[in-house]
Amino acid sequence: MKRKYAGIILAIFIVAFIVTVPMIGCKRVTVTPAATVETTAPETTMAPEITVAPVTAATSSETTETVQPAVTAEKITKIGAEMTGAIPSFMCINKTNMVTVEVKNTSDFTWRTEMPNLVRFGYHFYGQDVSFTEYDNTIRTVLPHDVKPGEIATVNVDIKDVLNKGTYVIQIDMVQEANDDAANNFWFSSKGVTMIEGTSYFDTCQ
Q1: What CATH architecture applies to the domain 81-203?
Q2: 8 Å CB contact between 116 and 179
Q3: For the whole model, what pTM was predicted?
């Protein structure tokens, strides 16, 4: 009976030993939670936004010139003009005087305001009691527009080259000039056209 209990006790002791020894021999390991490593994603640098302007057709700063066809001088076979007007009896030496003339184109070509066939008004003056005279180099007055054969125009002819007091004969005449061909440069009176003529006294005006 004693042996039976002794065997049981021994068995319990052996079991306890088997269980206890591994626990004594094992070193307790403390598991430290791993440090949390914060991974920061590299900051992405955004490229600056580029605004692309809409492509438009470039506008040239140069103005396209319209080339006008060259005007050819008309052939002249007949030169004529009918002028109506009157020379004032008094005019100023210190101001521009204007004499109104109505003229009809009885030529067979157009009187133009530009070359070729440039036609303008001029005048001649001759001093009667003073020695001042001028035939060619007097001021010119342009036509208001091109005047075709048969048309009538009204022109205010400027007279302002008389600079000295006295009595003068004034002759209003027409002239075609500034052409390369000298034959096309002439006073109309030299072709038989009647001028507007009169005597005028010139003095200072207030």
Answers
A1: Sandwich (2.60)
A2: yes
A3: 0.66
